[in-house]
Amino acid sequence: MAGRLLDYFNTYDLNDYALGLALTTTQNPYAGANNGTSAYPYLTSFRDSAFTDGWFLIRDGDVGARWVSKSGWELGAVGRLQTLGLGNSEVDQLLGIEDRKWTLEIGPTVGWRGWPVHIHLKSYAEVSDRHDGLIGQLAFSLPLEWSRGYFVPSVELIYQDSEYVNYYYAVTAAEATPSRPAYSAKSASNLAFKARWGYALNDKWLLSGAIGLEKLDSEITGSPIVARDQIWSARIGLAYNADIFQPREYEKSDKYQSRFEIRIGAFHDMIDSKVTRDTADGIPGLEIDIEDILGVPDEKTVLQIESIIRFAYYHRIEFAYFELSRRGSAVLSSDVTFGDEVFSAGPLISSKFEAKIFRASYAYSLMKDAQKELGIMAGVHVIDFDIRIADEATGQQESSKAGTPLPVVGLHASVALGMKSTLGARAQFFRMDFDRYEGSLNFLTLDLQRRFGDKLSAGVAYNYYYMNLRSNDRNVNGTLKLRHHGPVLYLSAFF
Q: 163-177 pLDDT, tens per residue?
């Protein structure tokens, strides 16, 4: 069965899909916040997923994989970006409220489409350590299709647990004001009405879109930072189908299958780091924002080196390394406790932050041809960091340093756009207790590469890296939250 499934994946042709540009707008529920509007490229099909049985699933903002049985069952896994945030947080109603960050949510999906009314159940958990909540969605839809298009109206019941609701809508005691009381919520159940549609202008162009209206639960509308009891959304897109992907097989299809690739890139890193150093006897310390409180730069361009070694066609090994070193100085506005030292307000405090990250992983390609590649990965991130704070006038100093390997698992994927361009992505995750450390790690990267001849290429990528690490090591004895992300420009050589 596994062999037949892999054969099915490998013979799948992405040229059955069209590539387009979409414009979406969503009403923001927060008081005084602007609605969110964005434009983005997207992949779609001239037929809705309700009428097809392909393994690649794109539906209602989800991207994933599925299996459809002959009896009408649909089983799969999907992921989506949750983009709800405060928007323009400079308005008076939201001053002092911490912004809600974007996050990645993934989970299983189960469907039944043996009747005219299709039923789908989805559950999401997030992987970016934002809200740590769970979301469940039960949808009833009535798909309709004709020769030039489709229309799929649906009704959805949306469950959001208390952790999810409180992350997005709670007001903490620190954020409360006389006109904005503290607020904590329980789980919520919303009701949504949605419809998606598509119309083929001809055999190459598809016009598609979606609309939605979601009625919010009283646990959400009761928040003092929420100003609406329902929110709407709309999307419209235009896609073109002209076999934009490289054919699965063609003459000299192995021409660009190099054994070894090395990349050297300039990574413009935007950094957000927070550290807590407990005392020697285990008393929890205060969280210090390294950039804001200690005056360490929050942006820096660093050198990044990566290499990929391929062997036995479906196998590859990856290595990557970069080093981030920053120094800063600041006059403290209030006393800061770091470990066993208390740095008093007033004097000039100097600080140094160094981080060295080495990645090594093995990957096996579940599918691989001249058009696409999809594989699973397992590896390790070796992290070595050193944080030092010093008051040169008094001679006070304290440090926190450690190095540990963190095991990760993940996925990698790539598609060939035409004969010389490749779009690729990688994701790696860590969730467990390991030795004296516990916490989480997320690494995501998306890159577009263009070849120039057989041996050279240039590309642009975007990296996202987040680590939340708790340590009982005597040299660390605290927590480190490190988030850095930014664009990368690189050159590659093939051998």
A: 999 999 998 888 888
